[in-house]
Design brief:
The protein is α/β, with parallel strands linked by helices. It contains 14 helices and seven strands. The longest helix has 34 residues.
Length: 339
């Protein structure tokens, strides 16, 4: 199909809707295929530009397309929405994707490697276990409250739950105690699973040179370093560290008009999980100002003296993100003398 200039695909679990445009933007192809038919179709297609939204399964399909010598453009879903005309259906979505991909100012998502997706999966499973553990702790506290016992918050009391119950010297029904024991065993199991995920990430970081360089930055540990490598395919996707901080949502949201600049709170756009880790890393630095805080010199001291604590945390997280970009871009360890 020599007239095909760009192919837009609306992804689904089982069905894929394809719309092809020529160089003038006219529709020259419209198909609905299942997964196996789609792979067969693009394998027979002459090398062209294929565009689809960066959603579930997009990176796997992007790697398949690249293997078949196609050019791939992954588009953030929110940037496709303005190009949807009229009512919404799958073919209209595919056409909007093809049109959006042709815009010269459009922003695209880098294709993730298989290794990056595996690391992201380990993080996702770990986060799932943490949420389950929190729910389990809340469940134990709630049912104890029904029997007049208010369990103190925190893992220390939860781990020694039955010793704490013995200290209360309040008799509990045997059937109720067995239910508590089953819940506590589930809590212990989740703790072990989280430790296993942490060990997997630590082993990965130990064998990765770039992750070790990232760990030279104060406030960046195994979790942040591994997730940086998983979610940031290449530092060259950002022109500088500030762009990466903006992508993480660590810069002020702007609402300027009439030539008057107006800055609001942080935008909180982009990668929520990685932004959270940088915030936690900044809190860890501020918790030990005499040790890790020294790396940031007088800047951090002055900021801490003049701004509220949470403002300082976000500002430091922004700086950590910029430093992380510089470390990945230059492939050099962080040096305190540069601050």
């Amino acid at each position: 199909m020599s007239s095909l200039h760009i192919l837009g695909i609306d992804l689904g679990k089982h069905c894929f809707h394809l719309v092809g445009h020529d160089s003038a933007g006219r529709e020259v192809l419209r198909k609905k295929l299942n997964r196996s038919q789609l792979i067969l179709f693009i394998s027979k297609l002459c090398p062209t530009t294929i565009a689809f939204e960066a959603c579930g399964g997009a990176h796997w399909l992007a790697r398949k397309c690249l293997e078949l010598n196609h050019q791939v453009k992954l588009i953030p879903p929110q940037y496709v929405k303005p190009y949807v005309k009229g009512n919404k259906n799958d073919f209209i979505d595919a056409s909007a994707i093809a049109e959006a991909a042709c815009r010269p100012s459009m922003r695209f998502v880098a294709v993730k490697s298989e290794e990056a997706q595996i690391i992201a999966t380990i993080h996702r499973v770990r986060d799932g276990f943490i949420k389950e553990r929190t729910a389990c702790m809340s469940r134990i506290s709630a049912i104890l409250l029904e029997f007049g016992l208010s369990l103190p918050t925190g893992h220390a009391k939860m781990k020694s739950l039955f010793q704490w119950l013995a200290d209360q010297k309040q008799p509990l029904p045997p059937f109720f105690t067995r239910e508590l024991q089953a819940l506590h065993e589930h809590y212990s199991y989740l703790n072990e699973q989280i430790k296993r995920q942490d060990k997997k990430l630590s082993q990965y970081v130990e064998t990765n040179e770039l992750a070790q360089l990232l760990k030279s930055v104060p406030g960046i540990g195994d979790l942040t370093a591994s997730l940086c490598l998983a979610d940031i395919s290449s530092p060259t996707n950002f022109t500088n560290g500030r762009n990466m901080a903006a992508w993480l949502g660590l810069v002020p949201r702007q609402y300027s008009t009439g030539g008057k600049p107006k800055l609001l709170g942080v935008s909180k756009r982009g990668n929520k999980q990685l932004r959270t880790l940088f915030i936690h890393g900044a809190r860890a630095v501020l918790a030990r100002p005499d040790k890790t805080g020294k790396a940031f010199g007088q800047w951090l001291i002055d900021l801490r003296a003049s701004k509220p604590f949470n403002v300082v945390v976000v500002a430091l997280a922004n700086k950590l993100a910029r430093i992380a970009w510089a470390v990945m871009y230059n492939r050099q360890a962080f040096r305190m003398t540069t601050i």
